[in-house]
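Example 310.
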Amino acid sequence: MNTLVTGAAGFLGSHLCDRLLAKGYDVIGLDNFFTGNKNNIRHLFDNNHFEMIRHDIVEPILLEAEQIYNLACPASPVHYQYNPVKTIKTSVIGTINMLGLAKRVKARILQASTSEVYGDPEEHPQKEEYWGRVNPIGPRSCYDEGKRVAESLMVNYHQQNNVDIRIIRIFNTYGPRMAMNDGRVVSNFIIQALKGKPLTIYGKGEQTRSFCYVSDLVEGALKMMEQEEFIGPVNLGNPVEIKIIEIAEKILELTGSKSKIIFHPLPEDDPVRRRPDISRAKKILNWQPRVSLEEGLKKTIHYFKNEIKK
Ligand code: NAD
Ligand code: UDP
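Predicted structure in complex with uridine-5'-diphosphate:
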């Protein structure tokens, strides 16, 4: 199986490459290295079944592949808001390019969509049938609306051109290989705790998220790609919901850190609650997360301890 992974040098992409290679597939990775890092894939450079290409998916590319995982897109608010127009181009023009490729070479294509398509949700937990509540002109819209258009493009290429598609909606996922400057909450808190710096809670910390460990997420993505029944969308995430203040306290406990907690203003449009309803993934993919928050955090803390020493 020839598999193309866009965003291969990123957090999720690099773990997915590892998993696909372990399955015996040939993998081509594409990345423009905006938020990705060669260190995430350096261990694969000697592997004859792996090839890495520096490429921006906003530009077309000709390749042979039987499967395409389209993960390229900055995922942290800090990074996707750095150049919002580029973020939209990546989700829209980039996805058109990957769909065009899938159409030409008759590949199956999986789109990494997001819980952000639900915006700041009025329905809780979020089911796939829910259409969401996204502010189309807010600071998160370059990402949220870009991903919504990408879903629409996927479905339209499927209906109009018979492209074989899969859509997953990923909820907050964490683990080793998140960039030190990623800016998302789990990596921020762990790095702050390990360095003895204050943990920066935005708002009062009463907002909730549901955190999925990376290996669980990769398994779900793989199952979605490999099944024949359903194009999606399917929610993939861990349904255990936790307040941001609670995750700060948990990380302080697990690191044994004496760091203080400080409060910063809540960013505009920051969703108040988020938890996936994963009934569909359970039923169709026979998938559910296996790694507990404590176990996943311990592994992630271990990773960042080593990164900080470097
Ligand atoms: P990440 O920032 O670590 O990885 C994204 C990768 O895409 C990086 O290597 C980056 O350099 C690359 N990239 C960005 N724009 C590109 C472009 N135009 N051309 C080529 N490469 C480009 O983020 P991640 O957490 O690994 O996220 C991967 C995918 O999963 C993204 O599409 C993201 O939207 C989606 N997702 C992730 C989460 C999560 O919690 N991690 C949640 C929802 C959705
Ligand atoms: N957050 C925080 N401190 C940080 C980073 C994030 O309190 O240093 C909050 C953020 O405001 C949000 C939650 O943690 O309510 C999750 O943020 P993240 O950027 O990880 O993901 P997203 O908002 O996209 O779910």
